[in-house]
């Protein structure tokens, strides 16, 4: 069920350059189901900025009714969000969208998880859920540079983890594909979230594999009413377009034009 409600800031901390980890508490957490779902956040009590900002759910704790997001404070909205302090209220709409299906891979099998930049956060809850099911995750995480790398240790605790930086300041130099070329493809399913060119490269690299891709399209309403997030589909779909907010943000590989 989608709900709108006030949630309280439990903790906010900077974990890398301009990257913040924000934990909120409230009973809306009880409705969060799939990894890869997102929330739509009002970053200010003022009229401006009017539009909410979509941020992925990075981890969920139903017992404490807390969830965590990781975001880059880049533009006006996310910078305002980064100024929230412990005890502040945040207006949250969610959980939104359809996330990653974890039941596509069986216990004992491997799953490949590929993230790029601010596409990495939803993969953390996904990886935790896969490990709970007895699946072996392999993480390949790409960042611009060493100063914006986050959650390396947390992912390592869950499974094999490769870090890539575009400038070579940490881990392997280049793009996630540079690491993927060196790995065997004995995984059952791949899951990915990040920039569209990265998603396109994965589809090209693994045409025969089952894959699930999460798209970070610009959004307005977040609930399927405004058409701001529409993407064209391929001939594999019997509709011409999908709305990323309500039909996605996760789609099987090959159905959205990349
Ligand atoms: C489903 C989904 C999940 C996301 N998860 C995360 C996450 O976990 N962590 C994170 O850091 N970012 C995430 N993003 C991207 C994040 O929403 C944008 O970076 C953010 O909205 C930018 O807002 P701003 O105020 O900083 O920038 P501004 O430039 O001030 O934003 C102006 C407008 O553009 C939109 N916008 C700008 N950049 C993006 C973008 N890349 N994607 C979508 N809308 C954009 C904003 O929503 C706003 O309406 C996600 C986006 C989507 C669609
Ligand atoms: S953001 Fe309004 S329809 Fe998707």
Automatic annotation (TrEMBL):
GO terms for biological process: 'de novo' UMP biosynthetic process. Keywords: 2Fe-2S, Electron transport, FAD, Flavoprotein, Iron, Iron-sulfur, Metal-binding, Pyrimidine biosynthesis, Transport. [2Fe-2S] cluster binds at residues 221, 226, 229, 245. Binds 1 [2Fe-2S] cluster per subunit. Binds 1 FAD per subunit. Its cofactor is [2Fe-2S] cluster; FAD. Signal peptide: none annotated. PANTHER family: DIHYDROOROTATE DEHYDROGENASE B (NAD(+)), ELECTRON TRANSFER SUBUNIT, DIHYDROOROTATE DEHYDROGENASE B (NAD(+)), ELECTRON TRANSFER SUBUNIT-RELATED. Heterotetramer of 2 PyrK and 2 PyrD type B subunits. Responsible for channeling the electrons from the oxidation of dihydroorotate from the FMN redox center in the PyrD type B subunit to the ultimate electron acceptor NAD(+). This is Dihydroorotate dehydrogenase B (NAD(+)), electron transfer subunit. It comes from Psychrobacillus insolitus.
């Amino acid at each position: 069920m989608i709900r709108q409600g006030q949630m309280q800031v439990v903790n906010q901390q900077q974990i890398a350059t301009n990257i913040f980890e924000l934990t909120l508490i409230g009973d809306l957490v009880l409705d969060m189901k799939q990894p890869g779902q997102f929330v739509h956040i009002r970053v200010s009590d003022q009229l401006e900025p009017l539009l909410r900002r979509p941020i992925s759910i990075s981890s969920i704790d139903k017992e404490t009714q807390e969830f965590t997001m990781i975001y880059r404070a880049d533009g006006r909205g996310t910078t305002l969000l980064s100024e929230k302090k412990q005890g502040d209220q945040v207006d949250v709409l969610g959980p939104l969208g359809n996330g990653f299906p974890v039941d596509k891979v069986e216990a004992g099998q491997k799953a490949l998880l590929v993230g790029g930049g601010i596409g990495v956060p939803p993969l953390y809850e996904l990886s935790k859920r896969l490990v709970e099911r007895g699946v072996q995750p392999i993480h390949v995480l790409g960042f611009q540079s060493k100063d914006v790398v986050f959650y390396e240790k947390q992912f390592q605790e869950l499974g094999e983890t490769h870090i890539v930086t575009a400038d070579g300041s940490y881990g392997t130099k280049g793009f996630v594909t540079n690491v993927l070329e060196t790995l065997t493809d004995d995984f059952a399913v791949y899951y990915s979230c990040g920039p569209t060119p990265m998603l396109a490269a994965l589809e090209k690299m693994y045409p025969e594999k089952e894959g699930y891709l999460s798209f970070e399209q610009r959004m307005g309403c977040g609930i399927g009413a405004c058409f701001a997030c529409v993407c064209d589909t391929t001939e594999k779909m019997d509709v011409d377009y999908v709305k990323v907010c309500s039909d996605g943000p996760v789609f099987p590989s090959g159905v959205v034009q990349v």
